Amino acid sequence: MIDRRATVVILVLACAAAAGGWWLQRSQQTPTAAPVPLSTRAPKAAVLQVGDRADDLALPDLDGKTQRLSQWHGKRVLLNFWATWCAPCRKEMPELSAAQTRHEGVQVIGVALDQPQAVREYLKHTTVDYPILIGIDADPEPSLRFGDIVGALPYSVLIGPDGRILRTKLGPFDAAELNGWLGDGK
Questions:
Q1: Of 45, 57, 61, 76, which cross-links 69 as Cys (Cβ 3.0–4.6 Å)?
Q2: β-bridge mates for residue 157, sequence order
Q3: How far, rounded to the nearest angstrom, does the alpha carbon of residue 137 sit from its chain's CA centroid?
């Protein structure tokens, strides 16, 4: 029969192993969004809401050339804020690319909240059929300006042909939801 000390040692070791396994599993998970201290997300300008006229966002593309949101005026525009480290963002990119091809009168624009070199490296292996702009150094932060007060990704904003914000979404799209957003003409 096992004495009492051996039983206690076995229980302590089992608890330590369970705690270690939990910690290891948590440390190896890919985060869906990098933690952002709330103090750094205080808006420097008013946060836009559904119904507001969208700002004429001006951000550099991957070649460093400034692109303005107004160049797509008259189309519905889907701004998709993403980053290379965001697994749900990467997962929805092929569907966004397919939607760009499928829906006339719609322009998908990816706004990377990531370093340009990381974005270039990622896009060497992932083809997208829509423009990618770099928003990491913009002030105010573009995703916050367009309503992403949580600071998580992906975050999408649908802008109507008149320049007004129609919808916003925190989290990834599935194909049916994306087609509903882009196919209903709202």
A1: 57
A2: 79, 168
A3: 16
Cα 139 to the center of its chain, rounded Å: 18
Closest CA to 109 of 149, 68, 77: 77
Q: For helices 175-183 and 87-102, what crossing angle results, to 10°?
A: 40
pLDDT at res. 4:
77
Report pLDDT digits (tens) over 121-152: 999 999 999 999 999 988 888 999 999 999 99
Amino acid at 141: E
H/E run at residue 114: none
Rounded CA gap, 145 and 162, in Å?
A: 19
Of 129, 123, 122, whose CA–CA distance to 98 is shortest? 129
Please identify which residue in the block is written with the tokens 């007004």. 164
Taking the CA atoms of 41, 46, 52 and 58 in sequence, report the sign of the dihedral they define.
Answer: negative
Buried b / exposed e over 67-95, threshold 16 CB at 10 Å, is bebeebeeebbbbbbbbbbbebbbebbeb
| Identity of residue 101 | T
At 130, which amino acid appears?
Y
> Mind listing the pLDDT tens digit for each residue in 84-112?
999 999 999 999 999 999 999 999 999 99
